[in-house]
Amino acid sequence: MNAEILAVGSELLLGQISNTNAKFISSQLSELGINVYYHTVVGDNAQRLEEAISIAESRADLIIFSGGLGPTKDDLTKETIARHLGVTLEFDDIALTYIEQFFAKRGRPMTDNNRKQALILAGSEVLANHHGMAPGMILTKDERTYILLPGPPKELEPMFQFEAKPKLSAMLNTGGVILSHVMRFYGIGEAELEVRVQAILDSQTNPTVAPLASDGEVTLRVTAKAETEQEAQQLIAAKVAEIQALVGDYQYGIDDDSLASKTVEMLLDNQLTISAAESLTAGLFQSELAEIPGVGDALVGGVVTYTEEAKIKQLGISKKLLTTHGIVSSECAAAMASAVREKFDTNIGIGLTGAAGPTAHDHQPVGTVWIGIAIGDEKPITYLLHLSGMRNTNRLRAAKFTCHYLMQLLEERGFKKR
Amino acid sequence: MNAEILAVGSELLLGQISNTNAKFISSQLSELGINVYYHTVVGDNAQRLEEAISIAESRADLIIFSGGLGPTKDDLTKETIARHLGVTLEFDDIALTYIEQFFAKRGRPMTDNNRKQALILAGSEVLANHHGMAPGMILTKDERTYILLPGPPKELEPMFQFEAKPKLSAMLNTGGVILSHVMRFYGIGEAELEVRVQAILDSQTNPTVAPLASDGEVTLRVTAKAETEQEAQQLIAAKVAEIQALVGDYQYGIDDDSLASKTVEMLLDNQLTISAAESLTAGLFQSELAEIPGVGDALVGGVVTYTEEAKIKQLGISKKLLTTHGIVSSECAAAMASAVREKFDTNIGIGLTGAAGPTAHDHQPVGTVWIGIAIGDEKPITYLLHLSGMRNTNRLRAAKFTCHYLMQLLEERGFKKR
């Protein structure tokens, strides 16, 4: 089965939003083993949409539409497909009742425009919309399947995943599976990682191995096709072992892991508490940890000491240390880490100070960051970063490197890591 | 001039990344008044790419390619276009020298693959790449213009903006301009805002008015076409005034403003200092403010008090208050705001406490948030939110609402707002 994804919406062509729906649907279809050969975006224009449909029909047997199912005049996906295929539109009773109730509850009059959303292609099967008013639909005609989905991602994503995907899966008679496994790396650049696994990248067939970099992290996606799930798992496991032999030191997680989620997991597993004193990151490190539910058993809290005065007054760092060594210094990061650990009575204390940009700070060039990590009564360990990004990229990288180094340190000290 | 954007890369069709390049190029072309009628994405496959080129040629006179200019075997955009147009590929001396120097500096051998990146279409003009090795190019043949850009956004965006756009602008002889102006709103839902400006949305011609919602914010993009820039500015100003008469109370900024940037601007303009005590947001409010350069003159710092113990020990909040009123309460938010303001000796103190999710906190349902704002010696004002998002959406909304309410309060007290 070869698919094309056809997004309808002038806001995409005006560059107001990205076509994230195509990304989402593509990754879902890839899990089903359905090849996607084209994405097309067309505006709210019936003639151009119909031409795009004809082209899609010439090269795909599954066409998935997103957008244009709403109540306004601009929404013309259904109407255009109906005319193109020569099928009529008819009201779906369930969808109509749902829309009527929606307006009745709010005491607002329901216009004909809203009623229009309950129209479906005759002969199609409805895909329920649990997050909006416009139902989706799936129709097979002349051995070609058409799926219509609403544009807003919060409606489209659950509708595809829970309504359309099971139907597609049932239609497929592939007898095979495609599985993907994502390996996540930190502390190594994309170029350097690719050089180290070059032989694997060059010789890949099945599994395939695809590198991708974003936000300073690098991932390798290992994808295997096989007759059975077990066989695919075995192919992946063998390739993962090969890769780990080369760059395993930099791998911090898999699939949906994040540096923060792995750090919190390690803290909770080892019953360790943490606090942080942040200058350039100004709370971002703690906020990243707090993205993870359950963090309250590890993160006690911390301080943001953005000014020199705050560092002195809130953490008791001596004016002399700041004058002698500077605010952006190993000594300052270490003192911040120790002070916050004592103040919050935690196992671990973190100190973060640096020049985020856009201008130098305390005579240190933009991108200079010192991270201090105090574990128990040990002398704090400090790390120097030279980052090359813009202000907020540097702040985020500083927070991520803190997770990376903290996990390394804890592992070296024998704390368990999943 | 009608354009089509043709992105080349199997990673797009596999759903590994979004086609953000198409969004970027589209918004740039819209500024030039060039209509974009289609986006197409095709994989790293010469035959399908050539078919896509033929289709694009049948409906566009400007075709902009992204991706497929790199060193690997998968990169075949240039080669395919060369064959399709019947032009040869030749080495560009400047690009070749740049690549050779890159490898010489690093003492690494340069392979033929890397050399390949310096090949350009005969007769094309080179678009310099200041952030990578592969040059872009622009070629006009048979009254149709082809622009080839590299895939990585950090290479493509500056190349388009500073190399390709001026050339396109010079080629255009439109005698007209298109200008856009974005109005930014907070504290009002998209549906509610649309209802209030319904008459304007229904009757729009020139300027057009397009609503868009994301991350709890709503924007209206007002776009005018006119003979001169001045005329377009006048059209926009008149429409903006009409809109402001209806929903001006909720507008916080324009264009690239953010709630944080407007808040920091207002604090700096009025020489006000701020500190914050954060629980559910765990530093996110302070970190959002710290995204803005120059914030150091306003943000002194603050505390993250994630646990009950930290609230008592670090802020001196009484155990009795927490037992009587609860951790997620107006009283607690007010006490946090007052305590942090005194501790950091600032004009303004912020207190944030709530149940971010995924489970209830202190018997309060997920999404319950109390914001406390203490200005000078005034009794703190508190605000209650009932948010309906997931954990981290709720945390971000709480930080954004804090900016929104703080600006309102300061304006009410006569502090100047730009």
From TrEMBL, chains A, B:
Domain MoaB/Mog per the UniProt entry, residue ranges: 4-170
Domain of life: Bacteria
Gene3D superfamilies to which the protein is assigned, alphabetical: 3.30.70.2860, CinA-like, MoaB/Mog-like domain
Protein family (similarity comment): Belongs to the CinA family.
PANTHER family the record matches: NICOTINAMIDE-NUCLEOTIDE AMIDOHYDROLASE PNCC, NMN AMIDOHYDROLASE-LIKE PROTEIN YFAY
Name of the molecule in the record: Putative competence-damage inducible protein
